[in-house]
Amino acid sequence: MSVMDGLAAAREIRRMEAERNWPITPVIIVSANCMPEHVAVGAQASAQEHLAKPVNVHSLIAAISHVLEPDAGRWVRRVSGGRTRGGEGHEAADR
User: Is residue 1 part of a domain?
Assistant: First the structure.
């Protein structure tokens, strides 16, 4: 049984990064919950990407490529942002 969920883990990672002046760790949420309000909660937790289940290889590669971009660190600090990429059977949508 886990001690915290993914959102709590993302928040804790960001807290530790800020406290210890660590570089930003890429965070990609993979969830069946992909409604705009779910994506917004992930963005507030400073996740860089939000993938909808089921995940397909193209969406996963796109998400990983995005979080590894040189300016991804600046992007994650925009709490009002958020991106979602659809899995198989889902439409990809950028927010």
Answer: no
